[in-house]
Design brief:
This protein is an alpha+beta fold and 457 residues long. The protein has 3 domains: 88 residues, no CATH class; 112 residues, Uridine Diphospho-n-acetylenolpyruvylglucosamine Reductase, domain 3 (2-Layer Sandwich), CATH 3.30.465; 199 residues, Vanillyl-alcohol Oxidase, Chain A, domain 3. It is built from 13 helices and 19 strands. The strands form 4 sheets. Strands 14-15-11-13-12-17-18-16-19 form a 9-stranded antiparallel sheet. It has a 5-stranded antiparallel sheet with strand order 6-7-10-8-9. A 3-stranded parallel sheet has the order 3-5-4. Strand 8 and strand 9 form a beta hairpin. The longest helix has 26 residues. It is globular and about 65 Å long. The N terminus is likely disordered. Bound molecules: flavin-adenine dinucleotide (FAD). The site of flavin-adenine dinucleotide (FAD) has 32 residues, from strand 4, helix 4 and strand 10.
Amino acid sequence: MLRRRSVLSALVATALAAQSGAMRTLAAEGATQKRRLPWRNWSGSQQCLPTARVAPASVEELQALIANAKGVIRPVGAGHSFTPLVPTDGTIVSLSRLSGLISHDPQTLQATLWAGSRLGDIGQPLEDAGQALVNMPDIDEQTLAGCFATATHGTGAKIGCMSTFIEGLQLVDGRGEVVDCDANTNAELFQAARVSLGTLGVATQVKLQNVAPYRLRRKTVWRNFDEILDIADDMADQHRNFEFYYIPFSGMGFTDVHDLTDEAVGSTEKLDTNDSVEDLKMLRDWLQWSPGLRELILTGVVNSLSDEVTVEGSWKNYASERNVRFNEMEYHLPRELGLPALREIRAALESQHHEVFFPIEVRYVKADDIWLSPFYQRDTCSIAVHRYFEEDFTPYFKTIEPIFRKYHGRPHWGKLNTLGRSDFRKLYPRWDDFSRVRREFDPQGKFLNPYLTELFG
Ligand SMILES: Cc1cc2nc3c(=O)[nH]c(=O)nc-3n(C[C@H](O)[C@H](O)[C@H](O)COP(=O)(O)OP(=O)(O)OC[C@H]3O[C@@H](n4cnc5c(N)ncnc54)[C@H](O)[C@@H]3O)c2cc1C
């Protein structure tokens, strides 16, 4: 006899199955369905009520969808971008059902994966195949296609952004055609498609140049901020991956390095970063009226923190969980201008924005040759500022963005900024080439929502 709990589970399972059936029906019937599923991004800064949200189960299904679509189509990954890249009242396409490892080559260490794969889901299959990603960002929720579309990056002065790992790409373009590209076949498309904001088509498969599995030793050290500024440049050159954070109103920050190691897997006691952000918020709430007291207490607390060391397989040792939601602005600056800009940002934050408690994050990325990569032809220092998701980010970001721009920054494509087409044309020497190739593969502008029409329409 079924117990009450299993009856309930069975009912929930039936309801879920019906829901997923409904999703497929939605896929098939699109606009004829009255029921609409709202969409929102991770932070809630972007929302929309599309006519249809679909998840094709094959490339053929995707082709039919694109060829027959009447309105705008926007591909979505994990919804972790802050900019209005996805919202549409047309169709949102997710590749959540086209995910996983397709094939791999033990000689070249290249692997072909479905573009809808989430980073966190491919570490183990790649390791089982004797491969690992060269680098990763600070979370692993994103999809491969989502990462590549916005030039998502980790840190490492000698390592490019994630799009530089791509050896070949397959996409379904605006005419519903399957197109393959690499450095030799459709070479211009390849230049455009490696960082495309999802405006050329829906990427279905990617071939990546990986490396053999490796182990990383991550070391976190709390330091006086002036000391960090003195050593940052050298540390960026000496370590495989180097980044640092500044805790506003404390005069303190921490450096984080990852280096290759053969040491045994293990970890010292770790600070819970989500709890720490909550603590910073609480301190802000209590002591915003007295910056001096806030600084005194913060400096004392931070000074008492111990260094941390974690040794783990690479793909388990890059990402952390980010449970405290925020909105973010990140600009990529010429490497040599990063620290002068950071000094100015700190001064502006601490003189004008006592409401801010999120740390400032600083990373390094190597130059590349991808047309719309913010790292195009320049080694970069990336600086990111954040605000709690329930608080208005506008005043703070309005103070900081002119500093980023004064130092020739290019914004992260997935993070908040106020730039328009004329600004981007000045920042990207190959902007017009990208637009030309974009029009060729999406002649009817099927992939342009209002934001992207402003940029490329
Ligand atoms: C908590 C958090 C931490 C983050 N950490 C980092 C970090 O360390 N480094 C960094 O650089 N960024 C970081 N980001 C930003 C994030 O990596 C990028 O915004 C990334 O693009 C999100 O990927 P996604 O899968 O969520 O894609 P989405 O945000 O859903 O989409 C992003 C873009 O990809 C396009 N796209 C999605 N799927 C396809 C497809 N199949 N074909 C074509 N185009 C497609 C979309 O149309 C859109 O233009 C972070 C964001 C958050 C919220």
